[in-house]
Amino acid sequence: QVHVTESGGGSVHAGGSLRLSCSASGSTNRDLSMAWFRQAPGAEREGVALAFSDGRIMYSDSVKGRFTISKDNAENTVYLEMNSLQPEDTATYFCAAYFIGNFYTPRHFFDPDQYRYWGRGTQVTVSS
């Protein structure tokens, strides 16, 4: 069993920054692919950024240039540096670990069903 824990959410004004952290611990002795998703009220869960175990990093178009994901492979910890936050970034941010999809099928990359373990989420609120 792998436990995923997020931290670092909060409330900021538009243009502000936040840094989220996520660690995956438990029954794992491998470098896990990890990703950040977010879900606003009434909306579907949306992929934001991912860091594959092979070193690839990807972002959704909505956050590209503003968010940066980084990963400590040895600790299975991933960070999400969020800059220039806007009200539309308001959501619960979830960390996912252990990608079970195909590493060469792009439609799998931000598909929530392709990740086995999830954290409970951390709230990010951006006011205008």
How many strands, what sense, and barrel or not for the largest sheet?
A: 7 strands, mixed
Summed up, the helix count is 1
Q: What's the Cα radius of gyration?
A: 14 Å
* Helix percentage: under 10%
Structural class by secondary-structure content = mainly beta
Proportion of beta-strand residues? over 45%
Query: Which regions have little confidence, pLDDT < 50, spanning 5+ residues?
Result: none
State the shape: globular
SSE run: EEEEEEEEEHEE
Distance between the termini: 40 Å
The total count of strands amounts to: 11
Average pLDDT taken over every residue: 93
Please tell me about this protein's structure.
With 128 residues, this protein is mainly beta. The chain has one helix and eleven strands; from the N terminus they run βββββββββαββ. The protein has one helix at 106-109; strands at residues 2-7, 10-13, 18-26, 34-39, 46-51, 57-59, 67-72, 77-82, 91-99, 115-118, 122-127. Strands 2, 4, 5, 6, 9, 10 and 11 form a seven-stranded mixed beta sheet that branches. A four-stranded antiparallel beta sheet has the order 1-3-8-7, with no helix packed on it. The chain is globular.
List the helices and strands and how they pair.
Elements lengths: L1 E6 L2 E4 L4 E9 L7 E6 L6 E6 L5 E3 L7 E6 L4 E6 L8 E9 L6 H4 L5 E4 L3 E6 L1
Comma- or semicolon-separated keywords:
seven-stranded mixed β-sheet, 11 strands, 1 helix, four-stranded antiparallel β-sheet
Short characterization:
Helix content is 3%, strand content 51%. By secondary structure, the protein is mostly beta strands.
